[in-house]
Amino acid sequence: MEKDCTNALNQISQKVETLTRFDIEVLKVVSCRKRNSLGEVNWSFRPIISIEKKSGKGKIPYTAIPKNDLEDLNSQTTKDYEKALEDLPQKLIKWDELNKTNDKELTPHDCFKGPITYGYHFQCRDCGGQGWNQCGNCRGKGSNTCDKCNTKGYIQCSKCINIWGNNTGKIKGETCPTCQGRKTITCNKCQGQGNLRCKRCNGSGTISCRSCGNTGFFHELMILTCVVNTVYKYIPNPKEKNKQIIQELNRRNLKDLQKISKVHRIESKIHNKSITRNYNSNCSITELIIKILDKKLIFIGYGENEIIFNYNNIVSILLEADLIVLERTLNLSKYKLWGTLIELSDNVGRVLESEINTMATKSSLIQDGIINKNYADRIKTALSKSLKKIIFCKLGTPLLTLCLLCLFIFAIDYFVDINLILGMWKYTLYILIPTFTWFLFEANVRKKVSNEINESSCKDIDVTYLFKRYNTMSNYRIIALIPIVMLLVIILLL
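Predicted structure:
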């Protein structure tokens, strides 16, 4: 019976042996049955030919076919549209005959030689096709009369006017220094020109036509376009009752379905404006029932190679017992600064023998149904807390040594005048020496914990990688800063 489902069984055993500490002996085959799942595939193509209207400023684009007037534009577009609809059934028949031996998808170019653009442009009524209009402010002259000198370019000098209001060119019998006796001065508004440049047109006499955007024309476009709407549908045989099989086959396109099924094309159905390609599908199904830890799991293999797409969280089920023991031991273990949590270390080592527990948070494992999200979250939490407790038990000696070192530094500072030797550099040394010492102790703690876990698991596990992943040392570095900070505070106060 196992020989009938060798490929499926090999896939399952590969996942189990690679990702867990178990081997194929834990898998007991209850039954293995092969059958065929029949179905139909309908691949429909519906071309839609339509007319798109566009209006804009300027002449028609160079790619458009020009027409004489709007009536000619509408007439030609409608004529070509009706011709395209009339030719569509024959084009679909021709395309189907040319592609009987392949599964090519229908494209708009197979149904219609387009898009085709027709256009018509006409002059702007506001500017008469010129793109500009006469400036209304200066009436096309580009300038306006200077209201101060009235086009003369000069004005009377106001400095040499006598009491009777006459301009004499003299002040107290002497020549007026402002007008030099000429009785007039240059107009300072127009600088002697007599006219002022028009601000609206900047002296050009014309302004751009706002209606046509300075183009002088408007255009109307009619575009014949074609799009193809595609509908793919898998129809299972009414005798197929397994929803998992129906869902798996239904979510695959024709190309993917051909990889696991025998797909044969049958006669296409051509309607007036659409074509439907029909296929018969025959997928070999392998139903394998395996008993694992008193639980029966059903695995479905597809095709001759018995490809399994859903592993029914088999790894989570196998490793559930290890996780429960680890969680129970974790709850019973207490924090202490000296000693070794032997039982907790052994359980962590046993859990880490299964490689998948070191990468349980990968989304791909959850998507493939190898483990479930609940198990991934639980194993991450349990390992993080366990490693922190194991490390904490190794910190008693380093913390005590660090405190004694701080006291020793304080004693030296108290009885010896360090300032004469080091000056203000002593505070830098007070920080660097304890910190460097702590990191040496931390590296030693990592090594000890790593050795304990590897001895428990009888396997070479990269525990340093786990420390980084679960951030197990960051909290204890804060604890190590306490005696260092206290040392500096006491020295500064004294």
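Summary: Residues 314-493 form one domain.
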